[in-house]
Design a protein that fits this description.
597 residues; single chain; four-stranded mixed beta sheet; coiled coil; 59% helix; OmpA-like_sf; alpha/beta; BON domain-containing protein; transmembrane
Length: 597
């Protein structure tokens, strides 16, 4: 086979693979991605150069090349080794005789081709084959080619001898015919090739000008250009499709890279958690290991008893110390909690006991030395009132008054209902009897009370109701009368035996019922008795000692010596009725002073 055919075969196969398969092959025939492709312009330029330098390009038909390329593509798609596939296609190309393609070109062209150019091509083929034979490269002979059976050798020789029929000498024609027949039978004889070359050189100049025909329409170069253009167009279209595929792969690669980063971050986080768990587990294992070693040391028979005793004493001492610390801390914590809870309950009870604040929900929270008071009240007066009560109940705590004053629209019906509710609450208190009338923001109060201070407090309570503009308090003070009297013998200060113990118990119950009240004791004497004033005072002191012996605080008892006759006793009545001690329930001295102010 000629060098030109081998070059064409190798070049077309490799270039078409670059455009059609876009793959490169390693030594084992495995396909790998190819990053660089031969541009279309370089591809066409290369083939133009081949066609211009080698005139025997016509031995490979473009359709035949396309068939070889399709066959190669099918082999690669089936997974066949690339090197074996290319060798098989090369073998098929080698088996095609150059003369078959040349005779096809001659028969397909209606105008006559340039005989001198054809002769030069034939000579070049012969020289190339001779060189291949000398270098040891074997190839199938013309006679062994399976496609030679379809070629009419006589017709080819007639076409070759046609330029010599008219003008060439008969001897030269016969000689040329014999050389061509010998060349057809054995293309590798150097002597035959030299003789054909010499014969052609003699007629080259004469034949060249005559062989140029005006009606020559198709040349080998034009056919080569057409084939190269078609292959280039196919490669360009495939290049565009491949570029789009590459862009999609790049986009997919970007998404894959983002997912890979997220997965890497998640894996790193998981590894960090695993390391933390392993570290904690290692610390726990170390602690358990140390404890185990200590236990082994404690119970190992071979260890010295003295050392054991020291270690045991240390362990027990440490354990007891830890238990003491834990118990003390636990006790202090619970003591503080209980104390704070008691203070909260105490303050809450005082707030609920206040009639003006009983309708509203106030929260008390004690934290250490701070007492927080929260809730909502309709007026600033009630807020200040709640603050005053809390300060009196817990003077050692810092008050944090967070009560919110909420201004509400005045509703007379609601104000009247609230006034009535306050009256009901006040009437439940012993020593108070009250009634109220509400008219367009004015409140009129009537009733009795055993204390002067109670009257002032009642006035403040009704004045603090939202919607009440004025309070008229017409209540009077009415002390609690005790119809208990203790009588004495004439000129004596000793309490006579009798029912005095029952009377003392009644007085004690009254004082316990009204803890804010005091007991007033007044002693009297008859005018016939000696030292009447001193005797009356001695009688009062005797009763006071008896009350103290029964558990009544002396500070709540006020003793006086009366003059004249006891209340409700006339001069005309019995004298022994004047020798007595009278009891009264009165307000404390401080309350009386505040009431006077």
């Amino acid at each position: 086979m000629s060098k030109c055919s081998k070059l064409l075969k190798h070049d077309l196969v490799c270039q078409t693979m670059n455009y059609s398969d876009r793959k490169s092959f390693d030594d084992r025939g495995n396909s790998q991605p190819k990053d660089e492709f031969i541009p279309r312009a370089d591809f066409q330029k290369k083939h133009h150069t081949i066609y211009n330098k080698q005139s025997d390009m016509a031995d490979m038909d473009y359709q035949q090349i396309q068939r070889y390329l399709q066959q190669l593509d099918q082999m690669l798609n089936r997974g066949q080794n690339a090197e074996k596939a290319i060798n098989q296609i090369s073998l098929e190309i080698d088996e095609v005789e150059e003369f078959e393609g040349l005779s096809g070109e001659l028969r397909s062209s209606e105008p006559a081709k340039n005989e001198a150019e054809f002769a030069e091509t034939t000579l070049a083929l012969a020289n190339a084959d001779a060189q291949e034979l000398q270098s040891g490269e074997g190839k199938p002979s013309l006679q062994e080619s399976p496609d030679l059976k379809s070629i009419e050798t006589a017709g080819i020789l007639d076409d070759l001898l046609q330029p010599f029929t008219a003008e060439a000498k008969e001897g030269e024609s016969v000689e040329y015919q014999e050389l061509l027949e010998q060349l057809a039978l054995d293309q590798t004889d150097p002597k035959t090739i030299k003789e054909v070359n010499d014969l052609l050189n003699r007629f080259r100049d004469e034949v060249r000008n005559e062989a140029i025909a005006d009606n020559q329409e198709i040349s080998i170069l034009a056919g080569a250009d057409l084939a190269a253009a078609e292959i280039g167009n196919d490669g360009s279209e495939y290049n565009q499709e491949s570029s789009q595929t590459i862009s999609e792969l790049e986009h997919l690669g970007a998404e894959t890279e983002t997912e890979a980063k997220a997965k890497t971050k998640a894996k790193t986080k998981a590894k960090t958690k695993a390391k933390a768990k392993t570290k904690a587990k290692t610390k726990s294992n170390r602690w358990l290991s140390g404890l185990g070693k200590l236990m082994l040391f404690m119970f190992q028979p071979s260890v010295n008893c003295a050392k054991k005793q020291k270690v045991r004493a240390g362990v027990w001492g440490f354990s007891l110390g830890m238990m003491v610390v834990i118990l003390v801390g636990w006790g202090i914590y619970h003591y503080v909690q209980i104390n704070q809870g008691d203070r909260e309950k105490q303050v809450s009870k005082l707030l609920d006991a206040s009639p003006e604040l009983a309708f509203y929900r106030l929260n008390v929270d004690v934290r250490g030395k701070i007492l927080s008071l929260t809730g909502k009240l309709p007026s600033a007066y009630l807020r200040d009132r709640a603050e005053t009560i809390v300060r009196l109940a817990a003077p050692d705590l810092v008050l944090d008054n967070q009560i919110i004053v909420v201004d509400q629209p005045v509703n007379m019906m609601q104000v009247a209902a609230e006034v009535e509710q306050v009256v009901k609450i006040l009437n439940q208190i012993d020593g108070i009897s009250i009634s109220a009338e509400f008219d367009r923001g004015n409140v009129s109060l009537t009733g009795t009370s055993i204390q002067h201070t109670t009257l002032n407090k009642i006035t403040e309570i009704f004045a603090g109701i939202p919607g009440v503009r004025q309070v008229s308090n017409q209540m009077i003070v009415q002390p609690i009368s005790i119809g208990i009297r203790i009588y004495f013998r004439q000129n004596s200060a000793q309490v006579p035996p009798g029912d005095w113990e029952e009377k003392i118990e009644q007085i004690k119950d009254i004082l316990e019922k009204y803890p804010g009240l005091h007991l007033k004791i007044v002693g009297y004497s008859d005018r016939t008795e000696f030292s009447r004033e001193n005797l009356a005072l001695q009688r009062v002191q005797s009763v006071e000692n008896m009350l103290e012996s029964r558990g009544i605080d002396r500070r709540r008892v006020q003793a006086f010596a009366g003059t004249g006759s006891p209340p409700d006793i006339d001069l005309n009545q019995e004298r022994w009725l004047r020798r007595c001690v009278v009891f009264e329930i009165i307000e404390a001295a401080a309350d009386l002073a505040n009431s006077g102010k």
